[in-house]
Amino acid sequence: MVLDYIIKIILRTKIIIFALLVVVACFSRAIALEGIIVEIRVEGNMRVDKETIESYILTRPGEKYLASRIREDITSIYSHGFFSDVRVEAIETPEGIVLIYIVKEKPVIREVKITGNRKLKEDDFEEVVIVKAREVLDKAKIKANEEEIEKLYQKKGYFLAKVEAKIKEEK
């Protein structure tokens, strides 16, 4: 019983040490990466064209590799609101460093439906609904729209009305 407990502690310790070594190895490789950037690639984009994404990237081929500049690139790409994930892989080659910006695009709204409404006319919603089809999904904008529709109901005298947006993702 005690022996089993000691073995478990030793195994956990070894796993933790191994994990720390992997993290340190990855971190030190990122720090040690030096050289000139020879190529920049963009992968994962489906709707946003490559040239548009490249225009958000400050780093250029021929420049020295700087981790701080890469972080600025990631921030710049995110700031345009089209992507839910951005990461960069740096590959050392004999010629220099190849940067691969891997993006994951946010989904696009295909359709906006108002259901369950029995008290207001559809025209009443046109002035307050700001979420539109073919826009990039923005959950903050959807939340704000829920609140605006609730205010519309309150303005029309329906103080207990609740509005809830439902997002159906298609595979």
How is this structure best summarized?
The chain has 171 residues and is an alpha+beta fold.
What distinguishing features does this structure have?
171 residues; 3 strands; alpha+beta; three-stranded mixed beta sheet; 15% strand; single chain; 5 helices
Structural write-up:
- The chain has 171 residues and is α+β, with helices and mostly antiparallel strands.
- Helix content is 43%, strand content 15%.
- It is built from 5 helices and 3 strands, in the order αβααββαα.
- The protein has a 3-stranded mixed β-sheet with strand order 1-3-2, with helices on one face.
- Strand 2 and strand 3 form a beta hairpin.
- The longest helix has 31 residues, at 2-32.
Protein topology:
Blueprint: H1 2-32, E1 37-43, H2 50-56, H3 67-79, E2 83-92, E3 97-105, H4 122-126, H5 139-155
Parallel strand pairs: 1-3
Antiparallel strand pairs: 2-3
Given the C-alpha coordinates, what overall shape results? elongated
Helix content estimate: 40-55%
For the secondary structure, the number of strands is: 3
Let me know the average pLDDT.
Answer: 84
Low-pLDDT residue spans: 26-31
Sheet with most strands:
3 strands, mixed
